[in-house]
Design goal:
CATH architecture of the largest domain: Alpha-Beta Barrel
Distance between the termini: 33 Å
Protein name: Glucosylceramidase
CATH topology of the largest domain: TIM Barrel
Helix content: 25-40%
Shape: globular
Radius of gyration: 24 Å
GO biological process, one term: glucosylceramide catabolic process
InterPro entries: GH, GH30_C, Glyco_hydro_30, Glyco_hydro_30_TIM-barrel, Glyco_hydro_b
Largest sheet: 9 strands, mixed, barrel
Number of helices: 11
Family: Belongs to the glycosyl hydrolase 30 family.
EC number: 3.2.1.45
CATH superfamily of the largest domain: Glycosidases
Number of domains: 2
Strand order of the largest sheet: 1-3-22-21-4-18-19-20-23
Structural class: alpha/beta
CATH class of the largest domain: Alpha Beta
Strand content: 25-35%
Number of strands: 23
């Protein structure tokens, strides 16, 4: 037996003679190209070699660790749930979106709490009975039509799926306009207390359906007062007071463990978040800050993190649409600005807007304004069939390979080469790399300078996720 082992060792050594390097380890990769010809396609196995490799060198350091990731996905709006639920390919679509094995394994979704700016039915809240301060008539019954069935089916294929709930508006009778569209919360103690109870009842009602709400944001886009669709303005002072005196204490007294996230609006107003977090009576209840992409600098979450390092950052909305139809341009911008830059700015999630819409960017009730040209990650044809849009592949390049509980780790960048890296709970490392140049070039990955190099020739205007 000893002679046989010695012979095998000699054979391995002889196989290395004459080569510039010996094979050492392997790396798997998945590629999407801007010309739309290769879409999240698995590459041939790439074998590690001793030596430096060629092209742009990417150093990955497991020992430099940052935030723990919670997930990647998009919003399950009323319209998204409607088209998924009513499609002849219902089961197939749910698997494509949520299965970690058969699909892209979406791990986090955003759920409007009632009305939003894209609805398959007339906008509603869970407490539309006027002046029901005790919320005796609170009901999630309207969510049972297609929202709850889709979530339950998604949880069957991905039981670790996380959900953040977000209100676009309080019930009309709680607002100074008595309408779902525009206006503000009536600044009255009884109304504030009832609205805090509204959040608790939402969480408890979903818990009774076997669905855990991981987090809630206090208000979607609190600086957006558009009166053409459900909105509600809330100044930072109002949001701080509501959390400090009503929502936070209400959660605590009801033993609600759901996280409270503030702001949930664009990168262009870091003062909104900072002002709230500077009030320590409020910040004791706040777990994080949520961000949107429609204005400001992509590094805004990093700036707030630097001021408040114990508060988590979340990226919760960005939409594609008819204003940007070029696949390559969308692939490059979204990868650089969202899927790489946001985790590097300390966000624990990257969520896009609609999970799915139909071929007319709906369904969209005429009485409800909002975006009429937004694009979902899937376009689900009202007569059957569906199309995977660029957003589907963008989400998939992280959600399929970066598992909940993964930790972002350090990775270098190079000329026309952006990166972000993570270590999964099982110890594997996932690296997303973008070649923003129009020409191909070699990229060499090294992890912790362990002597192994993995080289791949990246096509121009392409992204790839590598797992090793």
């Amino acid at each position: 037996m000893r002679q046989r082992k010695s012979a095998n060792l000699i054979l391995v050594l002889l196989m290395c003679v004459g080569r510039t390097a010996c094979l050492s380890g392997s790396m798997r990769g998945w590629l999407t190209t801007g010309d739309h010809t290769i879409l999240l396609r698995q590459l041939p196995t790439i074998y590690g070699r001793t030596g430096g490799g060629s092209g742009v060198h990417i150093s990955v350091d497991r020992n430099k660790r940052y935030q723990t990731m919670e997930g990647f996905g998009a919003a399950l709006t009323s319209s998204a749930a409607y088209v998924i639920h009513n499609s002849p390919e219902y089961d197939e679509i749910v698997n494509e979106l949520f299965s970690p094995y058969a699909g892209i394994g979406i791990s986090y979704i955003r759920l409007p709490m009632g009305a939003s700016d894209i609805q398959a039915e007339a906008p509603y809240t869970y407490a539309d009975t006027p002046y029901d301060f005790n919320l005796d008539h609170f009901s999630i019954q309207k969510d049972r039509q297609f929202i709850l069935p889709v979530i339950k089916k998604a949880l069957r294929v991905n039981p670790t799926l996380k959900i953040v709930g977000t209100p676009w508006t309080a019930p009309a009778w709680m607002k100074n306009t008595n309408r779902l569209q525009g206006g503000q919360l009536k600044w009255d103690a009884n109304v504030n207390e009832a609205y805090a109870k509204y959040f608790v009842k939402f969480i408890q009602s979903y818990q009774n359906e076997g669905i855990n709400i991981t987090a809630v944001t206090v208000q979607n886009e609190p600086l957006n007062g558009n009166n053409q669709y459900p909105t509600m303005e809330m100044s930072w002072q109002q949001e701080s007071e509501f959390v400090k005196h009503h929502l936070g204490p209400m959660f605590r007294s009801n033993n609600i463990k759901t996280k409270i996230l503030i702001y949930d609006h664009n990168w262009d107003n870091i003062d909104y978040a900072n002002n709230i977090l500077n009030d320590h009576e409020t910040s004791q209840y706040v777990s994080g800050v949520a961000w949107h992409c429609y204005a400001g600098d992509k590094n805004a979450p990093l700036q707030v993190h630097n001021s408040h390092p114990n508060v988590d950052m979340y990226f919760t909305e960005c939409s594609g649409g008819d204003w940007a139809t070029d696949f390559s341009g969308n692939l490059m911008w979204n990868t650089a600005t969202l899927f790489i830059a946001q985790p590097r700015a300390w966000t624990k999630t990257v969520l896009l807007w609609n999970l799915a819409l139909d071929e007319n960017h709906g369904p969209h009730v005429q009485t409800n304004g909002g975006c009429k040209t937004c694009r979902g990650a899937l376009t689900v044809n009202s007569h059957g069939g569906y199309t995977k849009e660029v957003e589907f592949y963008l989400i998939g390049h992280l959600s399929k390979f970066v598992k909940p509980g993964a930790v972002r780790i350090d990775s270098s960048t190079g000329q026309n080469t952006n990166t972000v890296a993570f270590q999964n709970p099982d110890g594997s490392v996932a690296v997303l790399i973008q070649n923003s140049d129009s020409s191909s070039h070699d990229v060499t990955i090294q992890v912790n300078n362990d002597g192994r190099s993995y080289t791949y020739n990246m096509p121009g205007h392409a992204i790839a996720t590598f797992v090793l």
